[in-house]
């Protein structure tokens, strides 16, 4: 047995401290929880009362870093790991405040540590964990807090946290596959643009100044390239400013309500990419709605949550119409069929799920189908995109080489 010195708060808010013996730290937290105590500090101490030894903190598992963040200083992968660990602690029977304290103390990210400990403090004061998480909307979105609230009300918080962890981990996996797939084409495009700009602004102006002195009349390709290169060489600050202004203007328009809606509509209608965007959005719709229904969220509130989390304003407006039509208790399949977005076999699966009372299972199967389609189409697109980009870059560089060699050939013929 190991002795632990603790500082805790009783249910009435009074502070208390003392010692307790247990086999390990987790058992000590469980024993204190059974006594109605909420420990704020727990340290190992020698049984004889000698100098205490602080418990070494467990090294947090390094989280895979991504560019996506849930909130200020808190990354998506860290929220996913927190959810999984929270589900494991709740499954072990550890009370919510102690579980939050343990995760907060072991967390290496200062922003996440402060947030988790703040949630733990709110829970000790009688605030529900869902309400405490709602105070951090950038870290815990509406989908997250709604599922946690349902888990609290149904007494199945551990199960709901497990479902949430599965959902977040699956989304991270899909996002990672897509990012790794487009990494090579993005590199090819960036390297090609960089090469062309260096040639136009640095290399070619020096060569063409020499050629122009030697020849009275330059070939048309050489003349075109000379004009473009000269403009880029002498007006590059203007080109840079205009380019930044255009990119900034496009980004501002896309982030505006009207621009975002137009951009989401364009994405769905693109020749090849549109099918990928549509499959990704429909897969997210089905998986999110299926997870919510599985966790006990009623269909109408679940549709409202999905409307805010689907990631496409055009489809969100359609889901809003579906929610209005199901408000009177109508089935889900009929209004979805009217949208003309879901394939017929998907509508049939949802209809069967409603009739058999297994809507959540059918929605998750639909999500698997749409995500499988999205991955297959993404792989096909990337396999075609990389050679296409290489051909475009090669054509540009080839045009420059031809424009450069034509005057040389002309001079050699003149010499002979």
Residues in helices, as a percent range: over 70%
The amount of beta strand, in percent, is 5-15%
Say what oligomer this is.
single chain
Q: Residue-averaged pLDDT, rounded?
A: 77
What low-confidence regions span 5 or more consecutive residues with pLDDT below 50?
Answer: 46-71
Overall domain count: 3
User: Gap between N and C termini, in Å?
Assistant: 101 Å
Strand order of the largest sheet: 2-1-3
**Biggest beta-sheet profile:** 3 strands, antiparallel
**What is the CATH architecture assignment of the largest domain?**
Up-down Bundle
- What structural class results from the helix and strand content? mainly alpha
From the alpha-carbon coordinates, what is the Rg to the nearest angstrom? 30 Å
The CATH homologous superfamily of the largest domain corresponds to Type II secretion system (T2SS), domain F
Number of helices: 16
Classified by CATH, the class of the largest domain is Mainly Alpha
Structural features, described:
The protein is mostly helical. It has three domains: 44 residues; 101 residues, Up-down Bundle (Receptor-associated Protein), CATH 1.20.81.30; 228 residues, Receptor-associated Protein (Up-down Bundle), CATH 1.20.81. 72% of the residues lie in helices and 7% in strands. The protein is built from 16 helices and five strands. The strands form two sheets. A three-stranded antiparallel β-sheet has the order 2-1-3. Strand 1 and strand 2 form a beta hairpin. The longest helix is centred in the middle third of the chain and has 58 residues.
